[in-house]
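Bug #77: duplicate submission created two jobs. Keeping one. Sequence:
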Amino acid sequence: MNYLKGKTVWITGASSGIGEQLAYACAKRGARLILSARRESSLDIIRKKCRLLGADCFVAVFDLSIPEQVDRTARKILSEHPAIDVLINNGGISQRSTAVETSAETVRKIMEVNFFAAVRLSQWVVPVMIKNGGGVIAVTSSIAGKFGFPLRSAYAASKHALHGYFESLRLENRNNNIQVTLVCPGRVKTEISLNALSGQGTVYGKMDSGQKSGMSAERCAEKYIAAIEKNKREVLIGGRELMMVHLKRFLPALFYKIASRIKTT
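Kept job's structure:
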């Protein structure tokens, strides 16, 4: 059976990278799509491609870093699409700066986009899902949500926070048919490093070598959707870099030795 066929799927961060490929993967499976991001022109192009794949597709443009826009958009979406079956909290922003040189404002913005926006949207959507008999909340975390890493202090903190919040949400709703899937990508070839923030909040603007050689966003998206379809609580997606998660757990001394030597950009 095709789990997503006929279901309404709302994807944030859908204008490029993993989010864009998630849109195509869901469209191929017959889902009805709501795509969100800041870049309306990019979303319009993706919407047209999804419609060519046979999917009903709608666009909601807003900025995850502005709580008022998050609330206003959620209210509007739920009034127009009262049955959200799957919410994929994928929108996010990374960081390329040391903890000491990163301003409090930059830390706050990263937390707002990566953590608080996902929380706010879920607080809007989960009650509707419960009323409708259930649903799926999927969250794009990172392997940086499993350990700290140089030049990623605020980014790692935001991803760690996602695990604490959404694992709690899952347990609280175990009798409400609410599935929660946390997805932890490693190195995926996207624009995440190009759009990352420096310490003072300016755009980093460079492609990391690790990102450039990473897994394709398309392959990542297919594994992401497979995790949702199989009702996985958590899934790691990537290549050899995933070993760091296991080293941190079982051989922490070796983990810290290796992590201190890895090229961070």
